[in-house]
Amino acid sequence: DGGITQSPKYLFRKEGQNVTLSCEQNLNHDAMYWYRQDPGQGLRLIYYSQIVNDFQKGDIAEGYSVSREKKESFPLTVTSAQKNPTAFYLCASRTTARGSNEQYFGPGTRLTVT
Amino acid sequence: EDQVTQSPEALRLQEGESSSLNCSYTVSGLRGLFWYRQDPGKGPEFLFTLYSAGEEKEKERLKATLTKKESFLHITAPKPEDSATYLCAVQANNDMRFGAGTRLTVKP
Q: What is the pLDDT of residues A41-67, one digit of tens each?
């Protein structure tokens, strides 16, 4: 089955610890994205990558880091510098073929930092 | 700055009671408007893409329309299983801007 997987579904961390969220896709998509979702707000873009070994900051990149060493994988690290890390994190991917702009989402990871 | 505003924030309908959700946007160089459905605790599920004013797309009880400034998601004779949050997003350049969503509840 083709799709996007995120793990774990729930993650709990103590303040001051870095944590890495996994995102894997087997859709052969070139572009991958990380969003953060908070209650009552639209999804906000953290980082995106259009191609392996390249990525760009989104609107709220501070306190986060990413890597794109493989086409299938785009892990997100939430560092201790992120002031309000508790949120629902969504990974998405998209083909860069002409005529197809929609993004497809994974199931999400809910991170709670106390 | 690109903006997407969805209304209402929440909508409660009786089963069979048709209605519409609104998504108004300001963006330079629209490359697509997207509708997603999101169930609680899950990732958004893609529904439709609209590219130009006048375009319409349909899927079961849902119909999406697009003008130069807004899009509507019409729900005809909804059922309880249509209860979800519906997200609208617009694409300009390389990123997508999302609205805050409309939380739809359909009561039997």
A: 889 999 999 999 999 999 999 999 999
C-alpha–C-alpha distance, residues B6 and B25, integer Å: 9
* Pairing relationship of beta strands B10-14 and B102-107 according to DSSP bridges: parallel
Distance, first Cα to last Cα, chain A: 36
Question: Between chains, do A102 and B34 touch, taking CB under 8 Å as contact?
Answer: yes
Phi, psi of A3 (to 5 degrees): 170, -170
Inter-chain CB proximity A42 and B96 less than 8 Å: no
Contact B70, B23 (CB under 8 A): yes
- Find chain B residues with C-beta within 8 A of A41's C-beta: 100
**Contact assessment for residue A109 and residue A89, using Cβ atoms and an 8 Å cutoff:** yes
Q: Which of B98, B102, B103 to mutate to test the interface with A (most CBs of A within 10 A)?
A: B98
The alpha carbon of residue B84 is apart from the nearest alpha carbon of chain A, in Å, by 14
